């Protein structure tokens, strides 16, 4: 599974950079994608909103780690 680790990213950087990475991995057929958000609720919210805007499905049922978001295409 492809991983995108957001540790070290600032909140204001994530929206644009994540959108670009998701499109890149989608075009390369690298889904599902595991996005490592860490514990920050603000980061999780930004990631969820960005994924929804881009039209990706968040798979909350498969995931048991609160610091990770799994996406399906």
List the helices and strands and how they pair.
Layout: E1 2-5, H1 11-27, E2 33-36, H2 41-54, E3 57-58, E4 68-72
Parallel strand pairs: 1-2
Antiparallel strand pairs: 2-4, 3-4
Helix pairs in contact: 1-2
Polypeptide structure, described:
The protein has helices spanning 11-27, 41-54, and strands at 2-5, 33-36, 57-58, 68-72. The chain is an alpha+beta fold. It has a single domain (2-72), classed as 2-Layer Sandwich (Ribosomal Protein S8, Chain: A, domain 1). A 4-stranded mixed β-sheet has the order 1-2-4-3, with helices on one face. Helix 1 packs parallel to helix 2 (41-54).
Please mark out the parts with pLDDT under 50 across 5 or more consecutive residues, or reply none.
none
Task: Report the C-alpha radius of gyration, rounded.
Answer: 11 Å
Strand content: 15-25%
User: What's the architecture in CATH terms?
Assistant: 2-Layer Sandwich
Number of strands: 4
Instruction: For the record, give the distance between the C-alpha atoms at the N and C termini, rounded to a whole number.
Output: 13 Å
Major sheet: arrangement of strands: 1-2-4-3
List the total number of helices: 2
Number of folding domains? 1
Within the CATH hierarchy, at the fold level, what is the topology? Ribosomal Protein S8, Chain: A, domain 1
**Biggest sheet details:** 4 strands, mixed
Shape: globular
CATH class category name:
Alpha Beta
Instruction: Give the topology string: H per helix, E per strand.
Output: EHEHEE
What is the mean pLDDT? 92
């Amino acid at each position: 599974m492809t991983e995108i680790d957001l540790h070290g990213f600032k909140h204001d950087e994530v929206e644009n950079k994540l959108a670009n990475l998701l499109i890149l991995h989608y075009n390369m057929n690298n889904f599902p994608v595991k996005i490592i958000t860490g514990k920050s609720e603000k980061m999780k919210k930004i990631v969820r909103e960005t994924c929804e805007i881009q039209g990706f499905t968040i798979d909350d049922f498969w995931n048991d780690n609160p610091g990770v978001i799994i996406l399906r295409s």
